Amino acid sequence: MKPLRYYLIVALSVALGLFGARQLHSAYAQQSPATATLKGDANHPSSTTNWVDTRLYFGLGPADAADKGTSEAAWRDFLDKEVTPRFPSGLSVIDVYGQWQGKQQSAPGRERSKLLVIDYPATRENEAKIEAIRLAWKQRTQAQSVLRVTQPADVSF
Question: Considering the domain 51-153 in this protein, what is its CATH number?
Answer without folding.
Answer: 3.30.70.120
